[in-house]
Amino acid sequence: MTEIRLLGICGSLRKASHNMTLLKTAQQLLPEGVSLHIADLTEVPFFNADVTTKPAAVVALLEAIQQADGLVFACPEYNYSIAPALKNALDWASREPDNRLLAGKAAAIMGAGGGMGTSRAQYHLRQVGVFLDLHFVNKPEVFVNAFSGVFAADGALQDEKIRANIQAQLIALQALVTQCKK
Amino acid sequence: MTEIRLLGICGSLRKASHNMTLLKTAQQLLPEGVSLHIADLTEVPFFNADVTTKPAAVVALLEAIQQADGLVFACPEYNYSIAPALKNALDWASREPDNRLLAGKAAAIMGAGGGMGTSRAQYHLRQVGVFLDLHFVNKPEVFVNAFSGVFAADGALQDEKIRANIQAQLIALQALVTQCKK
Amino acid sequence: MTEIRLLGICGSLRKASHNMTLLKTAQQLLPEGVSLHIADLTEVPFFNADVTTKPAAVVALLEAIQQADGLVFACPEYNYSIAPALKNALDWASREPDNRLLAGKAAAIMGAGGGMGTSRAQYHLRQVGVFLDLHFVNKPEVFVNAFSGVFAADGALQDEKIRANIQAQLIALQALVTQCKK
Amino acid sequence: MTEIRLLGICGSLRKASHNMTLLKTAQQLLPEGVSLHIADLTEVPFFNADVTTKPAAVVALLEAIQQADGLVFACPEYNYSIAPALKNALDWASREPDNRLLAGKAAAIMGAGGGMGTSRAQYHLRQVGVFLDLHFVNKPEVFVNAFSGVFAADGALQDEKIRANIQAQLIALQALVTQCKK
User: How many CB atoms lie within 10 A of CB A56?
Assistant: First the structure.
């Protein structure tokens, strides 16, 4: 059975990001045969069409996306839409010839934020995925209220219901990756 | 009669940006009593809650927004949503206490891009405005197809119909700023 | 001081609708000088451009909208978007010459539904309002979780926090109507 | 090779609907092994949870959806969102136990309308599909400007570019149906 390689992309750049915790929690909950690497966006600059030589951090990001069979977005919500660092990572990736890094790939979205769990941002991200030709897991959606005490003082996510939700989404993504590769 | 000061914010960072041209065109078409300053986003970094001292470019941006009575967004469309540099400018501005820089301000959106003139990105921006408590001009919307030959070789926008459209939007914004300040 | 007349439009047609309860609750919480009439959509058929004689229920709806200074939408969420009966009422109203029934009117949205309180539907409704030239109250938004026990067995809404939220929205709408009429 | 049965659902109820023409044009352009039946929404009433006995037109609609392997939506745009008759058909279908009529089905969207070809409505429909667990064709999208002369006086759609676009979408849908059934 072929290993499925997932790439996690987190829209928050702060060190103690709850959204990054979602990705790290996902790493503990992977189905057998699935791996999850997390991209490093800290040095990725804003996309600018005038920049003709890709910075090293962009090169590394694009290679990581190329090697991935599927994507897991940790999607914060800033002012009712997508965090710029996450959108920017996709904008860089979208500039490769024939959209070869993204076209037809399966993806899942999870997010931690206010009471609606970043849902508003997630629907914007799904619209972005239409142009990028991504295929998203529909169910389950993962909406985490970061202010409800589910994150421990040390940042860990121990809530069993949310962990089960993340695990179910990873299983759905595994199936969708398999389906999209056929 | 009080001068109305508008601030233009452009989501594209490239030098020959068509969206920046929209703002410069708007500067030629201002109603009497209205001025339009254009913000400089080139050095504004990604918002990161870990950064506690605002970089100089952010300080300058926030001061420019504070001094403005209304905002004009030049809104490119990247992959069916908002350009990160534009969203990021708003994310920085939104962090001031009580949303004092943005709450209740009037705004207008114009955009140049593919055949739909950045409309998909503009509707996402309008949703952002709900949280930021911006009041947008509804009509006219300004959607410019950048690939239809309306921009001359030197970048200038001479198309009379689009210029009239921009002018009508500025007049509507002037009225909305006046209304919102009452 | 001029009386402000509001019209409530509810997207749910069922008799014990929680969204209709929101409008009836709003009638108990009106600021002084504000009245709220509720439209009857039960006999309004689907809009069809082939129908050249307006049915009586449509005529009554359009008259009620014409007489209103502002609109209050009780917006259920069906399958992540707007209830057809609500959208259909607006589609009929939009067909009058020069959009004379709706252009420039102030409006507010409240909704009762699942855990996100119909937010997904409400943002779709706000996009509809761009074309209809409605001006929506930005804050407060009213999102009611109908499954959280806030509605009593007899359907009444006694939750003090939600009642205060509705009242604050009505005060904001009163101010916006006044502003839009200037 | 198994026949793939598609069901077309058109949001416009008028007899000479351009969107219905899109579906009839699609019937002329089907890939081998694919059939396309068109649903009749003319007698489908508004969904109302108080109605416990399904009207005959609803029963017929639900049976047609059940028998379909994939769906083709002809999606008009009314006031920047979905036509109520189309949304209403999906609302009825969504009420079956376990979402058994729709869960996991592949679908495509085409639309004829103003200059943006109903794109605003189509993105709302895609959000509806997240909850309904539909899998949409990403590319090609079909956006037809009904006012550009592509429809002949007798209503026929002869424009070769649009016909090729519809055909390409049907081929993509055929592939997606096959993929989703695995």
Answer: 10
Model-level pTM?
Answer: 0.98
DSSP H or E run through A136: strand A135-136
ipTM of this predicted structure: 0.97
- The predicted-structure confidence for B23-41, as pLDDT tens digits, reads as follows 999 999 999 999 999 999 9
Please check the confidence at residue A182 and state whether its pLDDT lies above 80. no
The single-letter DSSP state of residue B157 is B
Prior bond to A140 cis, omega within 30? yes
CA distance D77 to chain B (A): 14
CA dihedral A75, B104, C178, B142 (to 10 degrees): -70
In chain A, which residues have their Cβ closer than 8 Å to the Cβ of D127? Answer: 123, 126-127
Contacts of B130 in chain C (CB under 8 A): 123, 126, 136, 138, 141
pLDDT given for residue D62 in this prediction: 98
The answer to whether the Cβ–Cβ distance between A119 and C123 falls below 8 Å is no
pLDDT tens per residue across span C123-158: 999 999 999 999 999 999 999 999 999 999 898 999
Nearest CA to A69 out of A37, A21, A110 is that of: A37
pLDDT band at A1 (very low <50, low <70, confident <90, very high): low
Min distance B177 CA to chain D CA atoms (Å) = 25
